[in-house]
Amino acid sequence: MDMPSSPEPPRVLIVEDDTSLRRLLELRLSVDGYVARSAEDGAEALKVLAAWVPDVIVTDVMMPRLSGLSLCRAVRRDPRTAAMPVILLTARNFDSDMQAVIDLGGVTYMMKPFDAEALNAALLAALASRSAGSAAPAGTNHAA
């Protein structure tokens, strides 16, 4: 993995209600050199974000309590996280609600199932855009 140079490894918040997939993502990202924390849904993610600010959020779209789309809206409203890149993982068909969230800027989406290398490429692109001082362009799609 060719990460942007930084004194600390990149921090990623994984938000996924499927326990097996969440654990798999945590393990894969840890092996790839990321510091990964996780939450089981958007509501729990907001609690994590109150105490720990990652470099990138990777979130499922459809989750109980607070969806990934609602999480994105909340992240954009918070000045601490407003420019933070977000990668949406979804099996859901693209619709106007997803487009509205992507139009907020800095939001990329990937269709499930996804490839680990494609996710890593999306993370590297998000980190590069963050270190360049801007969020990723709206509507970026990283196909698996």
User: Mean pLDDT, as a whole number?
Assistant: 87
N-C termini distance: 18 Å
How are the strands of the largest sheet arranged? 2-1-3-4-5-6
CATH class: Alpha Beta
**Architecture (CATH level 2) name:** 3-Layer(aba) Sandwich
Q: List low-pLDDT spans.
A: 134-144
CATH topology: Rossmann fold
Order of helices and strands: EHEHEHEHEHE
Which structural class do you get from the secondary structure elements?
A: alpha/beta
What helical percentage do the residues reach?
A: 25-40%
Give the overall silhouette. Answer: globular
Give the strand tally: 6
Rounded to an integer in angstroms, the radius of gyration calculated over CA atoms is 13 Å
Count of helical segments?
A: 5
How many domains? 1
Assess the beta-strand content as a share of residues: 15-25%
Q: Give the CATH superfamily.
A: Response regulator
Characterize the largest beta sheet: strand count, sense, and whether it forms a barrel: 6 strands, parallel
